[in-house]
Design goal:
Layout lengths: L8 E5 L6 H14 L4 E5 L6 H10 L7 H14 L1 H9 L3 E5 L2 H9 L5 H5 L10 E6 L19 H17 L4 E5 L4 H18 L10
Parallel strand pairs: 1-3, 1-4, 2-3, 4-5
Helix pairs in contact: 1-8, 2-3, 3-5, 5-7
Bound molecules: ligand Z5A and magnesium ion.
């Protein structure tokens, strides 16, 4: 089934401090400057009911079993699926800062089974492109000390990076690996070029689901 003019779903992924928020903002500004209706989102969305639990978990003010917080992160995405579908079908392009792959990477890095981690993501809307900002975790230390949140530790971030690398290999048809060591401007030029091309290709394409 084909659809009319729809927006594209662009996702940014990568470890802490790799530049996702910086690049999400620049891509949104770029697309808007081209007259493309664009909306920015990020996960976790900390305002919703699940988001508030996630926020207190990340700031270390509550403890939950690994399985429970994993399912909360996934539920947080499911909470927004109707909105995402509606916006895309209305022709709005969405730029999303972290998505299902962060969910899998951070929990699998704790040692939980990869397939178990991925299972609750099945059925969510599949991105048209994932921009994976990749670099060795110790390169990111020069961007300031890790903060106080639960996962902001070098050794853990290295494990997270290994899972992202694995997903990037598996999902190479729509993942774009970008060298996050380049300057902000260089990265933006690379990403905006890919996004502009894909933006034109999604017209008439149905929305796909993560399988
Ligand atoms: N999490 C999870 O466990 N499960 C899930 O399902 C999801 C998330 C969705 C909160 O994430 C935590 O939730 C996260 C994963 C977990 N835990 N950790 N760690 P968040 O998205 O709220 O926060 P974050 O992404 O971890 O961190 P961040 O600080 O927002 O990083 P960033 O957005 O990638 O980077 P940035 O803010 O764009 O840039 C960081 C700094 O580097 C800043 O000073 C920039 O000016 C600088 N920068 C950016 N680009 C460059 C370049 N190219 N060169 C030099 N300096 C740069
Ligand atoms: Mg960020």
């Amino acid at each position: 089934m084909s659809v009319g003019k729809r927006g594209a779903l662009f996702v940014f992924e990568g470890c802490d401090r790799c530049g996702k928020t910086t690049q999400s903002r620049l891509l949104a500004e770029f697309l808007k400057s081209k007259g493309i209706p664009t909306l920015s989102m990020n996960f976790p969305e900390r305002e919703s009911s699940t988001g508030q639990v996630i926020n207190s978990y990340l700031t270390n003010s509550n403890d939950l079993p690994d399985e429970v917080i994993h399912l909360m992160f996934s539920a947080n995405r499911w909470e927004y699926m109707n909105k995402i579908r509606k916006e895309l079908l209305a022709g709005t392009t969405l730029i999303v800062d972290r998505y299902s792959y962060s969910g899998v990477a951070y929990t699998a890095a704790k040692g939980l089974d990869f397939d178990w981690c991925y299972a609750p993501e099945r059925g969510l809307i599949k991105p048209d492109a994932v921009f994976y900002l990749k670099t060795a975790s110790d390169n990111l230390l020069s961007r300031g000390k890790y903060g106080e949140e639960r996962y902001e530790k070098l050794e853990f971030q290295q494990k997270v990076a290994e899972v992202f690398n694995r997903i990037c290999e598996q999902e190479s048809s729509y993942w774009h690996q970008i060298d996050a060591n380049q300057s902000v401007a260089e990265i933006h030029t690379q990403i905006s070029g890919i996004a502009e091309k894909l933006q034109q290709q999604v017209d008439g394409q149905p929305l796909n689901k993560l399988a």
